[in-house]
Batch of 3 targets.
Target 1
Amino acid sequence: MKYPFYEENSDVIQPCEKACGCITNPATLYCILSQIWCKETCAPRMQKDWSVDNKTLGQCSVTAFLAQDIFGGDVYGILLSDGNYHCFNVVGDSVFDLTSEQFGNQKLNYSAAVKQKRSVHFQSIEKKLRYELLKTKLKGVLTKC
């Protein structure tokens, strides 16, 4: 099955943590997150435009750092024209961006990315709280797996 997120070789990625329940690869994580992404986990500047039809909008950094918890690797960011970074994951030779569908048909240049640091992103208390909310919602789903 083809999923609506950007990926290169992500089907070989497995969780580095045994307590991930039914998460076996980025695609299964995407399926679960699709059920729990919400306006409250969206970046505040984008919340007015968030909808279930565009559920990945404003979810990139909290999603990428949550995926890093599960799969390891690094979080990278693409500098956007508005001065913000769009975050995605790199694990070994594999690249995946679980929130790329928010850009529609726009092609992002994943090779022009800069490594992102959790400590820098989470200096923003609201972002850390959104990440913790998404993580709590994910744990709630995983208890049912």
Note: The first strand starts at residue 6 and ends at 8.
Target 2
Amino acid sequence: MYLIVGLGNPENEYSNTRHNIGFWTINEIAKMNNIEVNKNKFKGLFGTGVIQGKKVILLKPQTYMNLSGESIKEVVDFYQIKENIIVIYDDIDTEKGRIRIRKKGGAGFHNGMKSIVENMKTIDFSRIRVGIGKPEFKNDMINYVIGKIPQEEQEILIQGAKKAAMAVEEILKNGIDIAMNKYN
């Protein structure tokens, strides 16, 4: 079984922000595979299904970004998932609309990832970073990640989420190494 997690913030006011690109990606994966992500448990919204012949759980933690690890830990403990975890999240160090896949690694400066590493007590899980670019001014970071997205940028970010969804399909079909070669 695979746990596929998209990071974001739960309220409508955040739904169209750069920080919610993980949620956008889960929505895209769900749409592509006819999976409803509407069960409310584990401090998150989740749905189950089959993608590329593999059982999956799609999860959108509802704890707010900085506590995402709490929701993931509950799912992992309940389903006894030891590996096969993919986390999708926004990345300011990657160009808008591009994605980067890694087998494992540290949390960097991303608070959602810090929460996951802290709660899971490991860095051994796959991740797909979806590029959102950097703000013009570094001290404008919070407004940049949770603020309104200009119309001309929206389509680029949507394409990034779609690319990340296709990368998840590739990981499930052919493995992470092939997905990294194809998308990185």
Note: The two ends are 25 Å apart (CA to CA).
Target 3
Amino acid sequence: MNVMALLEYLDEELSKSATVPLTGKRLVDVEKCLDIVSELRVTLPDDVKDAEVIVRDREQILADAQRQAEQIIADAQQQFEQMVSNHAIVQEAQRRANAIVKDAVAKADEEADSCTAYLNDVLGNVEQHLKRVLDDVHQNRLEVTSGGDGNNAARGGR
């Protein structure tokens, strides 16, 4: 039988027992009631028995739970600090990378300016050389055209 059925059976036994006149008390079969109580004890679920153990051991369970909670908090704090530390390392690496890029850009700009100045000098020299050559060509042309009549006659007379 289950617990509820046994309690119902005990209730019936108590309800149908004879009453003692003028007292309001009942005459019960003690042996039968004790048997029912005994049966109840045997059929009580293990969970109820476990609950009694838990109630008795609740201080220990609470202390264990408190220790576990403190350990979880300590672990979480340590993980948080590690993450913050990693974040700081990443920030420092980012700062250094930005500085390296800035230096590289500055050096590239400096090199570009230097190359531009060098190219400007070379092109200036080429321009002056070409002007001299052009001036020489122009001068030679003038000489050819101004003295060309005498030279042509001399050539023709030969």
Note: The mean pLDDT is 85.
